[in-house]
Amino acid sequence: MSRPFPTARAAAWATGFLLAGGLPGARAAAPQPAATPALGQATAQTTGQAAHAHTTRIAQATPQGGRQGAGQGTGQIATQGAAGTVARAPAPAATPASKPASPTAQAEDIVVRAARNNRMEVTSGGQLGALGTKKGLDVPFNIRSYNSSLILNQQSQTLGQVLENDPSVRTTMGYGNFSEMFVIRGFPVDGDDISLNGLYGIVPRQLVSPQLYDQVQVLNGASAFLNGAAPSGSAIGGNINLLFKHAEAEALNRITADYTSSGQGGGALDFGRRFGANKAFGFRLNAAGMDGETSIDHERRHDAAVGGDFDWHDDNTRISLDMAYQNQAVNWGRGGVFLGSTLTSVPRPAAPSHNFSQAWTYNNLNYLFGMLNVEHDFGKHITVYGAFGAMSGQEKGTYSSVTVSNAATGDGTIGSMFVPYNEMNESTRAGVRAHVNTGPIAHEINAGGSALWEDASTAYAMYYQPTAPLATNLYNTRQIAAPAQNWVGGNLNDPLRSNWTKLYSLYLSDTMTFWEGRIALTGGFRYQNILQNGYNYASDDSLSTHYNKGAFTPVVGLVIHPTHNTALYFNRIEGLSQGPTATGANVVNLGQVFAPYQSVQYEVGAKYDTGRFSTALAFYQISQPNAYTEPYGNNGQLIFRENGLQRNRGMELTVNGEIIRGLRFNGGFTLIDAALVHTQGGLDNGHTAIGIPNYTVNGNIEYDLPFLKGATLIGRVVNTGKQWVNVANTQHLPVWTRFDLAARYTFSVGSKPLTARFGVDNLANTRFWASAFNGYLLEGQPRTFKLSLSADL
User: Fold this and answer.
1) Which pLDDT score is estimated for 211?
2) What DSSP string runs through 165-232?
3) Gyration radius of the chain over CA positions
4) At a CB cut-off of 8 Å and minimum separation 6, what does 397 contact?
5) String of b and e for 203-212 (b: at least 16 CB within 10 Å)?
6) According to the model, what pLDDT value does residue 82 have?
7) What does the angle CA 83 – CA 216 – CA 449 come to, to the nearest 5 degrees?
8) Can you spell out the DSSP letters for 382-408?
9) Given 3-state DSSP classes, what are the helix, strand and coil percentages for the chain, each rounded to the nearest 5?
């Protein structure tokens, strides 16, 4: 629920504050309105001649150069303002009567501003697909955004390292490779299903370099209406959305050098400028890289990413173009651990830095991707928007996972598989947002559509000798020569098409606000069609499977504002994924194609947000159907039915912001009961789903030392509850806790701010199994030292 007052009044207030001697570059806090305004109305809709007169000045002060809140179609250009961050205003020129500041005062001012910009910031709000970019307090959903300073301070090299700050997210690896998979509300978010400014299919698939992004946004809960169906069918319990960096009002010339133990070195360049009349044009260049051995023995990682971002705006139009290239590689990487079917207990973790993988394992991932966003205001009531994005990806790697057959000794076997994978994806979205009034009721009407095309090709070569397995040991790992991969499927040099996917959808919603904006009711629906063809890529590229089904996914949301800074909310929304096709022996309905799975979520919660501090409490239930075979008659036949059900119920509490002056906190805790309600034959009814902890806790705290200007101490704790390893619930992982400690110091040299950072992750070098999701184990990272130095030139 954006406030209608800031465009005119905030501009005048901010100008007066700065001219009155306010701190240059400070993050201004907007004055409080007298009454709570209507839900979702953009600040650009402020009426009156004063608002129009200030448009140009506001455009110069907003992070993306556009009118704050006006562009809520794609969300890219106005995201930072709408998500709750406040633009840094340019410092006023000194008047002739001003006395020159002393060198000491100038140095202190430089340090204060730089230290402020380095603060950990997590804001309530973000990009909500069909609804545009909204403040968290104004919507019936739980969404928050992690900013780029947190990514820089923590030297995050992957998206998973950024999301270690979120109490509702846990990270594991993909099946048999080094990719990252995320778990939100007990359901996975595959790398294929991360969105970029609301568009699916154009984000690097296995590993993401976070240095290119201004915000990492986490939406808790189902989102089929908001974002459409995810390409791979995950994202049922939540969504992760990324936003590119763009040029801000102040020029930026930042270089960074960093080191991560035991032998990774790297650096980054961040350059931003606004230019032209009224600073209408913006350019941002980001380049980052790192290479060397990680804190895991012999594991080497390489990361290189570069992105160029352009934007332009005038009073009514906002355009941005973003292009990026990313390369990540892992050599001798430590993967997941599978458990043999005969095990009755879980093996203890290996030594924290021990690498139980083989030297010939590797992957090499290359992606070229980008997007174009356009928004235009037809007057103050209608905004049209469009976005188009594409990605080309080339992946290859030789993978090997340990399967433990003796929990006491660690004896087991390994495999070897080479997989090339190529993909070409295109994604688009267009829509219109209109604001109209019918008597005392204000309406925000959203209508539009989206489409996605994915074309994938792959092949494989693997070692397969059942009578001569490759022996290994989890604790005393012997290196062996790379085995001959004797089972080949497809063309390894020119892979054949494996999948072709087309997703398209249409959506319509109306958000009605009344009682001076204190109550907002949202209703709407999206029609989603899922078309997917599978091909015999291992042989002749012929069509093997065909799926073409659609479904309507409705949404109902209610927000009630008891006070200006509080909200109570409710939502009923669905998740959507491709339905099954009946398979198996003696199945009477063999080949039957089922409609898409529709997972149903109910959620109630409360929020409190003052701008400097926010907290949210949510209670939810998500029911996800699944299918299995069951007896059909008395003649040994089976029928394939969609009778299975997993029901996840939980509670989430998040706290973000400045508790007292100089003390900031980000974290919270979650409780979850992931129950298998309907299972095949009822054998596992009431059991807990695999790999979903019964609780999670995260706490990240920053404290500015009062006696040493520019110095900040940081501490973090991550605690994860019990996780079941098998469906029968006879084996589980114990509770684990990890402590991190860090510090940073900002100082000036030659009127330029520098920031030195030092941190230690897993301070106690604790050994633990971090995840059992999908039934395989992921060991936690060992003690890792991090060091970096940044200079703003």
Assistant:
1) 95
2) G-TTEEEEE-TTSS-EEEEETTEEE-GGG-EETTBTT-S-SS---GGGEEEEEEEES--HHHH---TT
3) 27
4) 177, 178, 330, 361, 362, 363, 364, 418, 419
5) bbbbbbbbbb
6) 37
7) 70
8) EEEEEEEEEEEEEEEEEE--EEES-TT
9) 10, 50, 35
Q: Who's near 788: CB < 8 A, 6+ residues apart? A: 152, 155, 256, 257, 258, 259, 756, 757
Strands 300-313 and 337-339: unpaired
What are residue 704's DSSP bridge partners?
Answer: 712
Instruction: Show the tokens assigned to 206.
Output: 């296995």
List phi, psi (to 5°) of 145. Answer: -130, 130
Reference 87, options 52, 123, 53, 111; nearest CA is 123
Q: Which residues of 154-185 are buried (b: 16+ CB within 10 A; e: fewer)?
A: bbbbbbbbbbbbbbbbbbbbbebbbbbbbbbb
- Report pLDDT digits (tens) over 158-206: 999 999 999 999 999 988 789 999 999 999 999 999 999 999 999 999 9
Percent of the chain topping pLDDT 70:
87
> pLDDT (tens digit, 9 = 90+) per residue, 319-354?
999 999 999 999 999 999 999 989 999 999 999 999
Cα–Cα distances in Å, from 693 out to 175, 185, 632, 676? Answer: 19, 10, 36, 14
Residue with tokens 């809960």: 221
What pLDDT digit, counting tens, does each position of 525-551 carry? 999 999 999 999 999 889 999 999 999
Tell me how far apart the alpha carbons of residues 68 and 82 are, in angstroms, rounded to a whole number: 7
Report the SS3 class of residue 782: coil
Q: Which of 430, 428, 447 is nearest to 375 (CA)?
A: 430
**Which H or E element spans position 116?**
helix 103-117
Task: Specify whether the CB–CB gap between 723 and 693 falls below 8 A.
Answer: yes
Q: Which pLDDT score, from 0 to 100, does residue 39 have?
A: 37
- Closest of 157, 408, 184 to residue 259, by C-alpha: 157
Bridge partners (DSSP) of residue 369 are: 324, 391
Residue 262 preceded by cis peptide, ω within 30: yes
- What distance in Å separates the CA atoms of residue 470 and residue 480, rounded to the nearest whole number? 9
The distance in angstroms from the start CA to the end CA of the chain is: 38
Query: What pLDDT score was predicted for residue 110?
Result: 76
Instruction: Check: CB of residue 377 under 8 Å from CB of residue 421.
Output: no
Type of residue numbered 462: M
CB-CB neighbours of 345 under 10 Å: 11
What pTM was estimated for this model as a whole? 0.86
Nearest CA-CA partner of 557 in 525, 521, 603: 521
Spatial CA neighbour of 559 closest among 21, 9, 142, 20: 142
282 Cβ partners below 8 Å, 6+ apart? 64, 65, 246, 247, 272, 273, 274, 275, 309, 310, 311, 312
Max Cα-Cα span within the chain: 100
pLDDT of residue 60: 32
CA distance 349 to 93: 61
pLDDT at 25 over 80: no
Residue with tokens 């179609």: 73
Backbone angles phi, psi at 20, to 5 degrees: -85, 0
